[in-house]
Design brief:
Blueprint (H helix, E strand, L loop, with lengths): L2 H22 L15 H12 L3 H8 L10 H13 L1
Helix pairs in contact: 1-2, 1-3
């Protein structure tokens, strides 16, 4: 897979999370993936990443201040519990 395809996937995820944040703040936002590229392959990977954002990812993005940061096992467990309890 080329680096441009990876970039398309990253941008699809990033733009979806930004759209969810805009929706949370009651701002205008895209409900469908926007046109990212005229290249069919890059648009495919963009849309695939857009649709593969889970509700858990959205909750974590919207509530970043609630997620404990840390690398120890207890912090990771708290992060998983926070994700699944929202």
């Amino acid at each position: 897979m080329g680096k441009n395809w990876e970039f398309s996937k990253q941008q699809g995820r990033k733009q979806r999370l930004n759209a969810e944040l805009a929706a949370h703040n009651k701002l205008a936002h895209d409900t469908e993936p926007p046109l990212f590229s005229h290249c069919g392959t890059m648009q495919y990977y963009f849309e695939r990443a857009w649709h593969n954002v889970s509700q858990c990812d959205i909750n974590l993005h919207l509530n970043q201040h609630l997620v404990p940061s840390g690398t120890d096992r207890q912090s990771k467990l708290r992060s998983l519990r926070t994700c699944h309890s929202l």
